[in-house]
Amino acid sequence: MDARLIFEDGTVFHGRAFAGSGERFGEVVFNTAMSGYQEVLTDPSYCGQMVLMTYPMIGSYGINTEDVESRGLFLEALLVREYIDFPSNWRSKQSLKSYLEQNGVLGVEGLDTRAITRYLRDHGAQRTLLTTSNESLEIALRRIKSSPTMQGLNLADKVSASGSYQWPMAGQAPEFRVAVIDTGVKYNILRLLASHGCDCTVFPSTIDANEILAQDFDGVFLSNGPGDPEPVTSAITAIKTLLGKVPIFGICLGHQLLWLALGGKTYKLKFGHHGANHPVKNLATGHVEITSQNHGFCVDAESLSADDIEVTHVNLNDHTVEGFKHRKFPAFSVQYHPESAPGPHDSKYLFKEFVEMMRVYRDAKAMVVAQDFVQ
């Protein structure tokens, strides 16, 4: 079935639907990962977007039951150059086509993905319609321009858990108890926290900070997630209350929310960072990390004082802020995905740093209590 990808400026690209039919509205972003399409599909950070894979052949290893990163698929569509309908992998349980159709996601192949990527780099991400209908371009453009923009859109509350749940460690007693504020958390984050001795309780994005403080957690983790960070006011309010009272580690959207809670500003990138090969420089060590990234917004480096925060990581492609720590509060964050899935493992050391921060904070707190008792 023929399909059209129509951008709000009137540009049209043609392809063929290989999974599903109908229409989807959203923002098109390109992802440069060469593998890991199942992890991409199940990343809640793609809510409200259509993902275009720059690697030309997608579907060759099918879908398995182990590489799922969330409870479902939140993206609008998957756009590829060539779909492979005969997967060959010992872990494969079903084809990509059947997986997309099972989850109501439109899949389109035969697109000139290189041309679309170059178009997005030149013109930026914008409102888009993907359709298998014969509707006139004039009518389609009117409908596109009446659809919502990504700016001002709170998608984090949409993908967040509806209630709290446990992600316990397996086979050993936990050293730390961590509260995870879920604005679109990926399962590999929880797996890695558990592997570092953390028993995690996952809370909805609308959680009241006092509920977290009442349970005396050792640390708080701020997860990744989709959309504009500014409208996620409930999480920002909670973070403001938690600052200075418990160690905090944030990634991706959590990084932006922490920045906003400190009084900073964010802005929308032209086409965002999406893929598994983005170079980031660690300013403390001088090392370059190859990172996995998925975000369309960024923190404004000039909106917070260097007296309060220290920039720790910088993107080597566009020099945007990729990480910072607070000079007074036990809080730090990075813009990228240290849990990978998919992607390189260069940045997994950050989970160890979070654990060490919690350990130091806990020991210092115990010392204060002991001194008060003696006095």
Helix fraction, binned, reads 25-40%
Structure classification: alpha/beta
Mean pLDDT: 96
Uncertain spans, ≥5 residues at pLDDT below 50? none
Biggest sheet strand order reads 10-12-11-13-14-19-18-17-15-16
The CATH class of the largest domain, by name, is Alpha Beta
| CATH homologous superfamily descriptor of the largest domain | Class I glutamine amidotransferase (GATase) domain
Summary keywords:
375 residues, alpha/beta, Glucose Oxidase, domain 1, Rossmann fold, 2 domains, ten-stranded mixed beta sheet, seven-stranded mixed barrel, 10 helices
What does this structure look like?
There is one protein chain. By secondary structure, the protein is an alpha/beta fold. It folds into 2 domains: 2-145, Glucose Oxidase, domain 1; 159-366, Class I glutamine amidotransferase (GATase) domain (Rossmann fold). It is built from 10 helices and 19 strands. It has helices spanning 37-41, 96-102, 113-123, 137-145, 156-159, 187-195, 209-214, 233-242, 253-261, 349-374, and strands spanning 2-7, 12-19, 23-31, 49-53, 57-58, 77-79, 82-83, 106-109, 127-131, 165-167, 176-182, 198-204, 219-222, 248-251, 266-282, 288-299, 309-315, 321-326, 331-334. The strands form 3 sheets. The protein has a 10-stranded mixed beta sheet with strand order 10-12-11-13-14-19-18-17-15-16, with helices on both faces. It has a 7-stranded mixed beta barrel with strand order 1-2-8-6-4-3-9. It has a two-stranded parallel sheet with strand order 5-7. Helix 8 crosses helix 9 (253-261).
